[in-house]
Fold this sequence. Notes:
single chain
Amino acid sequence: MEVVLRAWSTASLLLLVIGMVLWLRAPLAERTDMALGAGLLLLVTTPVLKLVSVLIEEIRARDWRFALLGIAVLLLLGGSVMLALR
């Protein structure tokens, strides 16, 4: 799972760099907004992906206390996103 997280973070960095280079060349181009938006989306979702990977590890280890805490955190994050999108 660490390989996936590293690739996720690298993709985020590359999209942000591409977006910044495009922004320097043409600040109002639609491509610029798309690259920066995708990079930021990947960057923001990285901690959620890490939480899911830790949750899977805790369930496999049958550590139910931490698994329940991880589920609670995911529910809180999901609820926050739902409220923000209203």
